[in-house]
Specification:
The structure holds two protein chains of two kinds. Chain A is mostly beta strands. Chain A is built from one helix and 17 strands. Chain A folds into two domains: 113 residues, no CATH class; 53 residues, no CATH class. Chain B is mainly beta. The chains are: A mainly beta, B mainly beta. The interface between A and B is large, with 50 and 57 residues.
Amino acid sequence: MQMTNVKQRALKSSRTFKSLGMWLMLLFSLCVGETFISCENEHCDEPMYSSMGISCFSEINPTDKYTFLALSLLPMGADTIYTGLENGVFYLPLNPSATETKYVWCMIPRIYEYVGVSLDTVWQDSVAVDIKYCMDGKSVSLKKKERDLFYFSDSTMLYFYAGGFVRPMIDTLTISYDPIHEFVSGECGYRTIYELKNVAFSKGTGDLLIENDRVTNKFKENHVNIYMSVY
Amino acid sequence: MLTYICRFISLVALLLLANPAFAGKKSKKSAGEEQKQFFYGVYLDYDLADPLMGAIDNRRFGMNSSVVLDFQHLFYPAFELGYATYDASSDYIYDNTGTGTPTENVKYEVNGTYYKVGLNINLLAKDYTKKLAPYGYVGFRYAIAPRFEYEISGYKTDASLWKADSDYIPEQKGNTKAQWGEFLAGVNTPIFKGFCMGVELRYKGFLTIKTVEEDNCSINQSYVPGYGDYEDGTWGFRYTISYFFH
């Protein structure tokens, strides 16, 4: 009789232990589960910008990358200027709110001539305070300078190259496309990808070939090859 | 990711090892083998995690319920039904304007029904003498949200370089489909008469979402009802209260 009581008590305590164990286990897993709750991602980690990759080659030898003496691109309708593109590989943004983007293509031709620009330093108490520029016998003022590109007026841009001023060769690069607005997420919103339709120079600076007509956010992807005529 | 995998493995191991029934598996055979039945009953459960999450985050509302059949205390085919609605927009976004000024009043809402079907396999020692016994399991689900709705508005294009040309993209409204798979591990234990409590950890993957192409827009969903956020929704859990019908 006494043995039965002991057994029953042992059985009961064992059941209590099992039940308690289960509850503890649920409680424990609840705590662990809470660690899996991730905070809402409020930041956009996606690459959102799509740039059109351009590679420039020599028309004579299409496997050789074309190296510019100097090249600057100015998106029309924007204040920005892209300089330092001499190695012939660069990436241009396109306007997502339009179906066409134009760039002013500004480069030093291979055969160039110096422009007669004289400099006159203005001194004040032995300190140089300004430089006066004189072109074609007229005094001109410098409006802006981007690297080696000097803006004397909206239509007069000169490169300072190898110790003198050089008049650049200017063309217009027109890129036509269909923009597709791709919804990425609540945090990022839309990014725009572009389906290229046509790329052309207005003065035939080079021959253009669309190699890949889909401009996406992929890093360093090439889309257009330019085969430069010999200048 | 490695941290999550380690946590997952540790959790499953702890859940199984901490279970007394599992601990007893090595020392004795499953009890009452001769009383083994083919079908023991049906669990009807309700997920408490969804309302809990909804209480923490008022942009979220969801409910999820499942029916689980008990065959031989070994196989547990399951069917789940759920509904979720989520306001997945941020209060503002910077990234698609590029101007440093936020786009405010953006809206991205998703809502819809989802279904999951799959199987649980009990890994614990079975007590065939009892209709209702604790079970610890691993399993899988095939899930589908066949026609969930979305509404997106207030976002702009990034034309910051061209000044003043940033346009609002027209409101996008429609529905689409998503499918995915889930692997899960959990335990379920009786607490009072036919009532049980359970906890379940899920790993979700193989998500495919149908992209909607309309006019000049391509809409990819970053949130799916039943799955959660495309990036953050890989892990999920359920805390269930269930009743066992037999």
